[in-house]
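[job 4471] stage=fold_predict status=RUNNING
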Amino acid sequence: MPIPESELILNRDGSVYHLNLVPDHISDTIITVGDPERVPLVSQHFDSIETQIHKREFVTHVGYYKGKRLTVISTGMGTDNIDILLNELDALVNIDFVTREARPLEERIALRIVRVGTSGALQEDIPLGSHLVSEHGVGLDSLMQFYPLVETGLEVEVGAGVQQALQLPYRPYCVRGSDLLREQLGADMVAGNTLTCPGFYGPQGRVLRLDLRMPDLIQQFQRFRYHSAEGEFRLTNFEMETAGYYALGRMLGHEVVSLNAIVANRATGEFATNADQVVNDLIQKTLDRL
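[job 4471] inference complete, writing structure tokens
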């Protein structure tokens, strides 16, 4: 059945509502960054740029790098924006905008989506300035309260363990990212499990003028361990999007991986003086490996 106009909203030019893109605008491999100003830091390496589109916080450049067509899109911060991004990217390749009908299951297209972002380490042994690839994303946000996410037994147990450790009134969700992309892009990176927080200050244990309900929040994150047949599961770093990417990617059938430039270490209280270089090195490494 056709998807109603109120559900799949298109602009007058036929582009999807928030991203302002039409299907021909994107490639099958997409690099995402949080900051709109980081988009040209990626596309400056392209051999040529064919498309530049800007709407709200979503800036898109499409071009070629060493013969490969790539798309780089900024998302803004938070899993609420990732909800918009993933659903609209999927619509661009898996919904016919003329008939407003989804592709048959056997014709669905799987995108390769690579988040390149900054993150803070939670553990003292993760070096400042290192690059970390996320095996799992653990979401403290509420996005998956609205979707039928299916988790593995380990993922459910990890989420329940985090809930118990933090005494939360809800169970956080846990999702493994793309093994394929992690092996391709993260071979020499630190492998970790990324905590996705629904904010930058209180949810990440920062205190300015507001006190925290859990004054030892950071210590709770750092101490968390879950032991299974697969080994020890600990939280290595945190940011604000990865778990949303992994959960929506799984449900929609896309390959998704999160690559993190570690620019802060909350265990040692340090912030990288060369944060821009750490990010730029990760961008170059990602482009070359794609």
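[job 4471] summary: The mean pLDDT is 96.
[job 4471] exit 0
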